[in-house]
Design a protein that fits this description.
The chain is an alpha/beta fold. Helices cover about 25% and strands about 45% of the residues. The protein contains three helices and seven strands. It has helices at about 1-15, 55-70, 125-135, and strands at about 25, 30-40, 40-50, 75-80, 85-95, 100-110, 115-120. Strands 1, 2, 3, 4, 5, 6 and 7 form a seven-stranded mixed sheet that branches. A hairpin with a 2-residue loop joins strand 2 and strand 3 (about 40-50). The longest helix has 14 residues, at about 1-15. The N and C termini lie far apart (about 65 Å).
């Protein structure tokens, strides 16, 4: 009886296994200034683009902390580790006089639950063009 129960338990574990996490595509996001801080004689503005609404404040604050501590890697692939998700994206820093703008463009969000979401820009006229071509 124990062997049957144990076999059933093992088989059910394999049956309900979801396997590797799939990547979902999203084409909406929040763009805007998330964090503004005064630093010495200047001001720092952290802006995020294509961000997820639930984690945008947390990620913006982490970006600010990394920038102030000189640990922010600027370039095409920057990874920011947040409380709910890790975000991969492009970071651009623009300095002009006393104003510093740190812009972060979301590309991939890896949630702690295992879900991965990738941003892909929505093409508005592509469907109309295809329909017009075939009709």
């Amino acid at each position: 009886m124990k062997k049957i129960f144990f076999s059933f338990f093992i088989m059910s574990c394999f049956a309900f296994n979801e396997g590797d996490p799939k990547i979902q595509i999203y084409n909406y996001g929040h763009n805007g200034m998330e964090f503004v801080a005064r630093e010495g004689k200047g001001m720092i503005i952290v802006s995020t683009y294509n961000s997820k609404m639930t984690i945008r404040q947390d990620i913006a604050y982490k970006i600010y902390q990394l920038y102030v501590n000189n640990n922010l890697t600027v370039g095409p692939k920057t990874i920011i580790c947040g409380d709910e998700a890790d975000v991969t994206g492009k970071c651009v820093v623009i300095k002009k006089d006393n104003l510093t703008s740190v812009n972060f463009y979301y590309e991939l969000v890896e949630w702690k639950s295992g879900l991965k979401e990738m941003y892909k820009k929505k093409i508005k006229n592509a469907q109309r063009t295809v329909e017009h071509f075939f009709n």
